[in-house]
User: What shape does this take?
Amino acid sequence: MLKTDKTERLELYKDRNTQALISKFLSGEISELEPVYDPKQGYHYPPVESIVGDASDAEAFLKKLYDGGVLERRLYDKIVYCPKCDSVNVSVHYCCPYCRSFAIQRSALIEHVKCGYMDVEENFRKGNKLVCPKCREELRKLDVDYRKAGVWCACKDCGKSFDIPVATHFCRVCHANFTFEDAVIRDIYAYSLRKEAKEEVATGWVIIAPIRDFLEENGFEVESPAFMKGKSGANHMFDIAAYGEGAKRKVTVIDVATTVEAVVSEQPVIALFAKIFDVTPDSAYLIAIPAISENGRKMAELYNIQVVEAKSQKEVVRALKERMKG
Ligand SMILES: [Zn+2]
Ligand SMILES: [Zn+2]
Ligand SMILES: [Zn+2]
Assistant: This one.
């Protein structure tokens, strides 16, 4: 499952627009891509528009990168559209649950802590002061003398009182009234670069690119990423495949494994072995940055995988050069 995911992302990385957007994330120009609201256009994403050239293409582009596992998203807002005319110029009406009128009066409920009397704020008002209508004492300090105990609403049309109003929508364009059931609601997202994508891109651009160049300069034909069919009929992906010159066209496959920990585990050795067992290239390399674990080294030896250790991306080509000579 994870493999398909990565394969799809690697395809997307080849696209110039994708590369341009990812660069903005990696350079720190964008940490999270938030939509910008414009009263005429609605929500849009200006940095993406400058890449893809058109506002209507921007959303499809972002959706593709989200579906492909390059970007992750978080719910940023919801837009309510009028079901009759599609306008976003929609307001909220808080209505009386009994007669549906939106002519309601909201009041704060106040409780006099000392005597326990509770009523709406208006009934405590005496000029600039708050005075308890029951015990006639003045309320001075909030949360000491008195506390707010929620809201209380009164309907100006039917005269009933209630605590929770019913929300409805009013379209300012076609004047339609509609409820939650009929509202057309669209989710709006903010996007950021997925951790996996960040790592893959760093590996691909910073580490794989110089290796490619080195191999090409030395007469190899290079594919990266390379998709190769095995004896089983399954397709396998390698970070790099290099084909030698001459009639035999010897095939070398290379995977790159990086870790932020001290050493790369045996896991990428096992993964590479499973693939070369099926594909049977002439030689296989695992580039481990910064180093390989003891267990990984033993397994690689057993599986006939050449391990190249390099502390940094700068060292990779030099280390590979030495290894491939021998
Ligand atoms: Zn009182
Ligand atoms: Zn009412
Ligand atoms: Zn409308």
Notes: The mean pLDDT is 90. The two ends are 37 Å apart (CA to CA). The longest strand covers residues 71-81. Helices lie at 2-13, 16-26, 46-52, 55-67, 195-217, 267-279, 294-303, 313-325.
